[in-house]
């Protein structure tokens, strides 16, 4: 997988008893995603916000896994972050570990709201204006945003504004996307555990079908409605990945690999 191999330029550290490795591709891809108007300082700030947000997300997984007496370690790479565990645990424990990641991201979103309220006096109405703009494209009340940022002498180009905007955007929108029922995103992994409990024989296959359809539809919508090449590629990649898994499962059955009771093991 791109950006997972060990290199001499990896950043390594240990935090809260969990080893962390950051691949150089993480910094490069994050910078590319944030390189919109070529403001170097803003790109650096964006990369910092991405690093903090994904690290918090992965520590949500890692600390929950550690609570279940596992020994996790974290990798930040080109496509985001991964939290590796040595043992699977029960399905309930796996579900808790999976959902703890998005939960940690949403908690950082709430902390961002509280911190900027305390430091800058941003009102709930002003927070809501920006959140609605990010979620549904509703234009923020100009007076609300000017009151929120202009009155502090920061202006819309101020670094405090962009730090706030980036953290809200990442930990609200990316958390929402990560909870979609698309394997191997957290939402898709969670729905796979639930579907395998509800339907032990066919739940995994049906979850991959759901993932394929959901990702495919979103890829088409992203391409037609938004013309966003990154989102189109992002969802298209997951649609193709789930198609490959389904094809492999079909080939295994047609070749007689495994048996009807594979799910009982």
From TrEMBL:
Main location per the UniProt record: membrane
GO terms for cellular component: membrane
Family of this protein: Belongs to the peptidase M50B family.
Keywords of the record: Hydrolase, Membrane, Metal-binding, Metalloprotease, Protease, Transmembrane, Transmembrane helix, Zinc
Membrane spanning stretches: 43-60, 95-122, 128-149, 161-183, 209-241
Molecular functions (GO terms): metal ion binding; metallopeptidase activity
Organism of this sequence: Paludisphaera borealis
Lineage top rank: taxon: Bacteria
A single BP term in Gene Ontology: proteolysis
Domain Peptidase M50: 49-202
Name recorded for this polypeptide: Peptidase M50 domain-containing protein
Compartments reported by the entry: Membrane
Cofactor: Zn(2+)
Membrane topology category: Multi-pass membrane protein
InterPro entries: Peptidase_M50
Claim: Iron is one of the keywords in the record: no
């Amino acid at each position: 997988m791109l950006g997972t191999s060990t290199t001499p330029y990896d950043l390594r550290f240990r935090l809260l008893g969990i080893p962390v490795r950051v691949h150089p591709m993480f910094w490069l891809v994050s910078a590319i995603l944030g390189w919109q108007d070529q403001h170097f300082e803003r790109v650096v700030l964006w990369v910092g916000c991405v690093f903090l947000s994904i690290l918090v997300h992965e520590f949500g997984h890692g600390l929950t896994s550690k609570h279940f007496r596992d020994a996790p370690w974290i990798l930040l790479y080109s496509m985001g972050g991964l939290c590796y565990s040595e043992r699977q645990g029960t399905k309930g424990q796996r579900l808790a570990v999976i959902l703890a990641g998005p939960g940690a991201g949403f908690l950082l979103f709430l902390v961002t709201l509280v911190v900027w309220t305390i430091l800058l006096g941003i009102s709930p109405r002003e927070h809501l204006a920006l959140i609605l703009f990010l979620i549904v494209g509703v234009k923020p009340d100009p007076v609300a945003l000017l009151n929120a940022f202009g009155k502090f002498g920061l202006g819309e180009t101020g670094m405090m504004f962009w730090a706030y905007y980036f953290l809200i955007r990442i930990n609200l929108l990316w958390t929402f996307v990560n909870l979609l029922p698309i394997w191997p995103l957290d939402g898709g992994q969670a729905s796979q555990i639930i579907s395998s409990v509800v339907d032990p024989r066919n739940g995994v296959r049906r979850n991959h079908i759901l993932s394929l359809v959901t990702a495919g539809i979103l890829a088409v919508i992203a391409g037609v409605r938004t013309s966003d090449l990154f989102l189109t590629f992002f969802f298209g990649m997951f649609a193709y990945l789930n198609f490959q898994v389904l094809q492999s499962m079909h080939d295994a059955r047609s070749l007689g690999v495994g048996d009807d009771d594979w799910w009982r093991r």
